[in-house]
Amino acid sequence: MTKGPAMLTETRPLVERDRFIGAMRRVAASVTVVTTDGVAGRFGATVSAFSSVSADPPSVLICLNAASRIAKAVARNGRFCVNVLPESGPELADRFAGRHDAQIADRFSGVNTFGPPGSAPLIDGATGFFCEVQQCVTSGSHLIVIGTVHDVLDGEAPPLAWREGGYHRVVPTESAHRMAAE
Question: How far is 136 from 75, CA to CA, in rounded Å?
Answer without folding.
Answer: 7
